Amino acid sequence: MADTELDERKVKILNAIIKNYLETGEPVGSRTISKYTDLNLSSATIRNEMSDLEDLGYIVQPHTSAGRIPSDKGYRFYVNNLIAEKDKEVSDMQEWMIEKTEKMESLLKNVAKTLANNTQYATLVSAPSVVSNKLKFVQLSAVDEHQVLSVVVMDGNIVKNKIINVEKPLDNETMLKLNMLLNTNLNGLTVDQINLALITKLKEQAGIHDEIIAQVLDTVAETITEGDDLQVYTSGATNIFKYPELADSKKASELLDTFEEKQSLMELLSDSTSEGDNTGIQVYIGDESPISTMKDCSIVTATYELGDGVKGTIGIVGPKRMDYENVVDNIKSLKGQLDKLLKQEADRNK
Amino acid sequence: MADTELDERKVKILNAIIKNYLETGEPVGSRTISKYTDLNLSSATIRNEMSDLEDLGYIVQPHTSAGRIPSDKGYRFYVNNLIAEKDKEVSDMQEWMIEKTEKMESLLKNVAKTLANNTQYATLVSAPSVVSNKLKFVQLSAVDEHQVLSVVVMDGNIVKNKIINVEKPLDNETMLKLNMLLNTNLNGLTVDQINLALITKLKEQAGIHDEIIAQVLDTVAETITEGDDLQVYTSGATNIFKYPELADSKKASELLDTFEEKQSLMELLSDSTSEGDNTGIQVYIGDESPISTMKDCSIVTATYELGDGVKGTIGIVGPKRMDYENVVDNIKSLKGQLDKLLKQEADRNK
DNA sequence: TGTTAGCACTCACTCAATTGGAGTGCTAAT
DNA sequence: ATTAGCACTCCAATTGAGTGAGTGCTAACA
């Protein structure tokens, strides 16, 4: 693992520097390291090594005659080592969720919340993208003379509804027929597969009541397609005030803005779904982040799956000196639970 | 309107002080006022008057030999005058909402957003409280063998749904009977009226299938009752960084926490629904606020109605030196539009 | 040749003293 | 009743000395 440019001692020192900095948030000096570590070396020797490490770009000095802090490259090295090594104990998390499957929305809100509580960082969770998700159930019902309620249930019990205004009341028979039509034709299909052609075909089959039904069908299609892009739940955004390096007015304001404007967060999450590595866990450090306002942060994301195809994402945003071990642990465990939960949900529906 | 303790000149000076402070956010001195206003008085005279105003409690000095800033009492005086006088022009707002009635949720989110944009303060909007709201439509449908979807529509097209897990599949006939039972008994009732007694009665009527149906009924009741307390939409929380007196780390963190933890916001809003005055607009200044973390802020709330009984609330939170005129204008206009919109909605459903 | 001790140097940070300016309160004159 | 003038107060910004943590370099050492 160790690059050729780093001998074992340098690695040890680098690790010591980073570990220490993660704890304190202060630049760490040569004397500290010389006492802190088991390799008995004087501060002077450490200084020489640190000088080398700085030349190699793993650590930087905020100013002359200050201690060193890890550079992005340094963090990256640390994280790579960490994730490769560590893969054993999975922290036990609360089991509350198992019972609360009924509503995807509240489940995800809870996930975001507990994760934020556990880690003390800001978290975000995106709802499973509906695009490659299967339709399970469609139903239209007349609420009153001029309004029809359409309810759509997707795999994973994601429920969507929409009220459709109609000119003339639909009689019971038509209603029944429509429901039949929709369910037999749409059930089990993914949103991808429900395209214009299919809709047109349905319209034709609907036959006589063409006008009204066309309108209804359009709206149903809309219901299924729309709005699933904004589903991001965040929590613990204010945790960033706990880290002085992020808490100054300007940075905090920008960051919180980004969190409030969930749109841009989507980019972050969708970005990470594409280039997932084997573990499904992604770490962005500083400038590596796709969002510029987060260039002073680190971001850890994981994607969880539901049935086939990649779906939703969990993310944690914190200072660069975040406790990567703990975070990766937490997020990994959570991802596992979500995967299991949703899979079992899917199985049950078979 | 002018209290006996304030002669006309004092009122003018007080107004000048407050207006100036609203703009600058800096303590305002006697010389500024002497030049700023049309009443030609020397700074010395102003000083005397200011001294009086301070004794009367309308303004305070942050420290000796600084200018004066309005006290809560001063703001209160200003606001009272303002709201009484001003009632003419209602600023024209975007008309986008008219078309978007279908989904209460997105409507309210939009309201919060535009309001935040227009005023540059933090806003919160609570969904119409369902408590005194009428049930319009209930429906159970079998999604698959073990899951039943219950959909409840309330007045104002608030849709709630919940998935109920059942042991044994329910056959079509039972389903139909259940739906009938629910709709005939519950339609038109308010949540208040759906109490334990009624539920028990329903269970009895359900008869044979007692066990399963009891479970379903319980869940439906739960669906109706639950969760409507958390429906608060916020926007523009980060606007507080625009006002230095709120932007320091500690205060900002507390405030944003309060905004994230929507629960406590509910108190604020529900509080204001109770003691609405004639216009339905409430202004809390500083310590008057029911939430302690907001004691450095002012809060303007308005309640909008839907049919009979008080329902939802719109609120704005900003610094004490907020632009009350503009805010009250905005909020009043918005309240009017919401009232109208929801009323017309209600009418159409008659 | 790698390691260490020692020393001079740098730089941020703290604290106190200094200064300038904005603003007040009071008094005496109009 | 109003105003001009002056002494006074207090904040805010500036300066400068002192401190300490940390570095880089050199020379000695094993």
Summed up:
With 350 residues, chain A is α+β, with helices and mostly antiparallel strands. In chain A, 47% of the residues lie in helices and 18% in strands.
Would you write up a description of this structure?
The structure is a homodimer of 350-residue chains. In chain A, strand 4 and strand 5 form a beta hairpin. In chain A, helix 2 packs across helix 3 and helix 7 runs antiparallel to helix 8. In chain A, the strands form 3 sheets. A 5-stranded antiparallel β-sheet of chain A has the order 7-3-10-9-8, with helices on both faces. Chain A has a 3-stranded antiparallel β-sheet with strand order 4-5-6, covered by helices on one side. Helix content of chain A is 47%, strand content 18%. Chain A is built from 12 helices and 10 strands. Chain A has 350 residues and is α+β, with helices and mostly antiparallel strands. At the A-B interface, strand 4, strand 5, strand 6 and helix 10 of A face strand 4, strand 5, strand 6 and helix 10 of B. Chain B binds a DNA duplex (30 and 30 nucleotides) through helix 3.
